[in-house]
Structure formats: C-alpha cells, structure tokens
Design a protein that fits this description.
Elements: E1 5-9, H1 11-28, E2 36-40, H2 46-58, E3 63-67, H3 75-80, E4 87-95, H4 99-111, E5 116-123, E6 136-140, E7 146-147, E8 163-166
Parallel strand pairs: 2-3, 2-4, 4-5, 5-6
Antiparallel strand pairs: 1-8, 7-8
Helix pairs in contact: 1-2
Length: 167
C-alpha cells in the first residue's frame, strides 16, 4: 500500500534533541554517568531507544537497550534484572497520555533500586488531558498521525529516519 506523507521533524533535528536530552540526563543524577539501561516502553519505541543508547555510548557511558513489555511486568523485570545497569531511562515514542510510560515507570520503581527517569519523544498532550508528565519531552506535537523512527501504519514507514505526518 502506498501512503502519502509530508515532512515533519528532520532526522538531524531528532539527533540533536536526543544529544541534548542525553547530556541533561547524564548530568541530572551521578548514577546516569555510570551506565544506563534504556527501556523501550512499547515495541515501536525501540528505534528511539537505540538512538538514545548510541548517544549515551558516544558520551562514553555504558548503555543497554531492553524492550519493556508492560503487559508482562513484573515477571519481565525479574527476568531481565541481571542485565540492568546503574540507572534507567524509560522511553516512549508518542502518546497523548503517556499511559504505557507511566505504568512501566511505576512498576520499575516498585521492583528496582536504581534511579529511573522517563522520556516521551513526541507528546500530543492536550491541555488537561493528563495530570502526569515525563521527566523529558523531545517534541510537543499536534494531534496528528506520525510515522518513522519505528512508528508505522500497517507495518509500513517505520524505517524512516525522520518523522513524517500522513498527508
């Protein structure tokens, strides 16, 4: 199937924003400069999680990526505990409520004894829609359907390095 898209957020801008957030995160709590586990809150968040991991590694910080299955937690937490590093960044690609991100944060706080911070790459949070906010937000965007960087429609367009809006 062929989808029409229009440019929205360029790959270079995404990379720059991730670098800035990684710098902020790594200086916010000393443990974050000693090794970070980057957890993708949803399967579509994995591409952003890998970009964050690469940015941490470029700063000389050990990093590992885990695909956090919210539905399987806390068993997932216990099964993966040996791979966790000194701190945790839980990342979601796009949401208006942050429900998966918030749920995974709560479960990690219950089961892990390491500093935990949250990142929402693309927030569609409308005024008054949610009383919870992540520690960092990459971009606030209008309530449009976006693709690229792991996000797709019918299994297509996820591999785009930039973010596009369906036209």
């Amino acid at each position: 199937m062929n989808f029409s898209t229009k440019p929205f957020i360029d790959e270079t801008i995404i990379q720059q924003r991730i670098q800035t957030m990684v710098s902020d995160i790594s200086t916010s709590v000393p443990s974050f400069s000693e090794g970070v586990t980057v957890v993708a809150a949803t399967a579509s968040s994995l591409q952003f999680a890998n970009l964050f991991s690469s940015a941490f590694q470029r700063k000389g910080i050990d990093s590992v990526v885990l695909n956090g299955a919210v539905e399987a937690t806390p068993k997932w937490l216990v099964d993966n505990q040996s791979t966790w590093l000194n701190a945790c960044v839980i990342l979601q690609d796009v949401s208006s409520t942050g429900l998966h991100l918030r749920k995974l944060q709560h479960l990690c706080l219950e089961h892990l004894n390491i500093p935990i911070r949250t990142v929402m790459m693309l927030s569609k949070n409308q005024e008054g829609e949610s009383d919870w906010t992540p520690d960092w937000t990459g971009f606030c965007i209008p309530n449009e359907f976006v693709v690229g960087c792991g996000m797709d429609i019918n299994g297509e367009l996820a591999a785009l390095g930039s973010i596009k809006v369906l036209a």
